Amino acid sequence: MKESYRFASEADAAALLAIYAAYLDTGITFETVLPDEEEFRARIREISAEYPYLVCEREGRIVGYAYAHRVFARAAYRWDAELSVYLAPEARGEGLGERLYRRLIALLRLQGVQTVYAVVTSPNPASDRLHARMGFVREGYFRNSGYKNGVWYAVSWYALPIGGYEDPPAELRGIGEIPPRDREAALAGG
Questions:
Q1: Into how many domains does the chain fold?
Q2: Which of 19, 38, 102, 186 lies most in the core, judged by the most C-beta atoms within 10 Å?
Q3: Long-range contacts for 25-28 (Cβ within 8 Å, ≥24 apart)?
Q4: Model confidence over 120-158: pLDDT tens digits?
């Protein structure tokens, strides 16, 4: 089945929200109330202003999405980004999360991001395997970090260096500052 990758738009909010809704009753997200479509549109708009927000389509239907965002507010952290990926149930276990991440990371390199992080609720063996396959290293484990649906969940923080750590580093570029041909090349092959 042919897949295509592109940047998300606000018009994708309903489809992305439908994928995200399947995670709400799990420990995968610590959100406890499903945002409405307008809130999801706002999230897409805000994230996309600076970072890549990607979707994968099969036969015109979105089956997964991934995005990056700033990890911490302080200025010295601006070369870091946190990644998230969500897949439709029928697209899980096929390597789609890795394909989305590879494209996302390729775009973040172009922006000048140096380290990417993933925060994974534990237990989550599938996500642990994904991050290990991609070379992420577990840098931290925090017990009882979130309480949801009558369960205390731990979280693992994974890190992957993707930059050269120049001294001083080049200023981070917004995703819109990356030349279109470079963005398209990253989407095509990750």
A1: 1
A2: 186
A3: 25/149, 27/121, 27/124, 27/146, 27/148, 27/149, 27/151, 27/153, 28/121, 28/124, 28/127
A4: 999 899 999 999 999 999 999 999 999 999 999 999 999
Report the CATH number that the domain containing residue 107 is assigned in CATH.
3.40.630.30
Distance CA 121, CA 153 (A): 7
Residue 95's nearest CA partner among 134, 136, 53 is 134
Structure tokens at 175: 């995703």
Whole-model pTM over 0.70 = yes
Q: What is the pLDDT of residues 24-64, one digit of tens each?
A: 999 999 999 999 999 999 999 999 999 999 999 999 999 99
DSSP 36: P
Q: Is the dihedral of CA 7, 9, 15, 17 positive or negative?
A: positive
Query: Do residues 63 and 20 make contact, with C-beta atoms less than 8 angstroms apart?
Result: no
Residue span of the structural domain in which 52 resides: 3-172+181-189
For the chain, where are the alpha helices, taking DSSP H only? 13-21, 37-48, 96-111, 125-133, 180-189
